[in-house]
Amino acid sequence: MKEKYLINARIIDPKNDLDEIGGLIIDSKGLIKAVGKKVANGNIPSTADVIDLKKQVLIPGIVDMRVFVGEPGYEYKENFRTLSNAALSGGVTSVVTMPNTEPVIDNVSIVDFLKRRGRDKSKINIFPTASLTKNLEGNNMTEFGLLQKKGIIAFTDGLKTIQNTRLMSRIMKSAHDLNSLILQHAEDLELSKNGMINDGIISTKLGLQGIPDLAELVIIERDLTLLESIKCRYHISQISSKKSVEIVNKRKQKVKFTCGVSINNLSLNENDIGDFRTFLKLSPPLRTEEDRMSLVEGLNNKTIDVIVSDHKPEDEEQKRLTFAQAATGSSGIETLLPLSLELFHNKSIKLKKLIATITSNPAKILGINKGSLEKGNEADLCVFDINKPWVVNKDKLKSKSKNTPIEDRKLQGQVLKTFVKGEMAFERV
């Protein structure tokens, strides 16, 4: 592979506190050789490939901490190849996949299969999680030690929550002993049972069973109380309400943990559901505008550490049903960056801080050498036009399933190029 010189770019690397016009050199092994304003237009070897980025923004490849893939078992919704194509078009170079497959990712043999398929069929970096409990049933723990040795990066029940407090205590003790990372989807089963949207005026108006913010809060309070006495690596996958932001902020002063938010809850609210728009049936549900604004403030004051796409592909037949019957989830990996940029354009959050939530922060939580432009790192890069206007058209999305919640939405900011290990894996034409 030839050396590549990416010149004349606005380079943003939050981990190294970098925001300057300069360039980046990719060596023959696909590693970052140099970065910053010292990489100028002069003294470029004649044998090198030169790419003039014309002042476009260059950031580390995006790390998405919550992605559902259909393999194995649900390949008709999404497979590794289509996920890879979708991710690359959104500037995402590393994904953490959930274990909610068929069969469930809960034993060593399935992990081997998963890693092999991910390596053969995708161009992006796949970091698989395994389930906390056997078959996601919430009764018996999986073998954390064996699975971790096979390359499992974290443990989660994905869409499900550990309801049994005694079991959660045991899980945390094992996580402490093995230095495992726990990702918890916070939702009390009894309080959320049969719920479809946020519990409030809109649910009453539409005649739909609501999910109160208390369902989220109860699990967060329980887990953080356990965490005070059992120290382990613990991450709340997503929060969605003002009350959750307040309690997370308060507890962070006493105990060490991290917290995420879905881009859906940052950019939409319950009013967007309108007249029974089932593509907006999500978990956690879209809540009030006050809740949404609190989440944005939580990003600003570092209560919330990461933004995730919560990419959950579903075929249209499973979404175009009554609200009660419709599947939960949305396709979002391709629009994660442009939707996040809305927060910058409307002056809600500074750009460098925003970029950190999708690059260096998730990489730090996961303990992986991604999300930064440090010399010697693999050149996983995203180049985007921060101002380019475009309209979301589901037919142009690369994902196999087209269940985007923002069809026809006007966005500002679009990915132009994505590099993985120094090779250009995507270029918008």
Explain what you see:
By secondary structure, the chain is α/β, with parallel strands linked by helices. The protein has one domain (60-366): Alpha-Beta Barrel (TIM Barrel), CATH 3.20.20.140. Helix content is 29%, strand content 23%. It has 14 helices and 18 strands. Strands 1, 2, 3, 4, 5, 16, 17 and 18 form an 8-stranded mixed beta sheet that branches. Helix 8 (242-251) links the parallel strand 13 and strand 14 (258-262). The longest helix is centred in the middle third of the chain and has 16 residues, at 214-229. It is globular. The two termini are 23 Å apart. The mean pLDDT is 95.
> Percent helix among the residues?
25-40%
Our count of domains comes out at 1
Kindly provide the radius of gyration, computed on alpha-carbon positions and rounded to a whole number of angstroms: 21 Å
CATH architecture: Alpha-Beta Barrel
The geometry reads as globular
Mean pLDDT: 95
Structural class by sheet pairing and helices? alpha/beta
Q: Beta fraction of the residues?
A: 15-25%
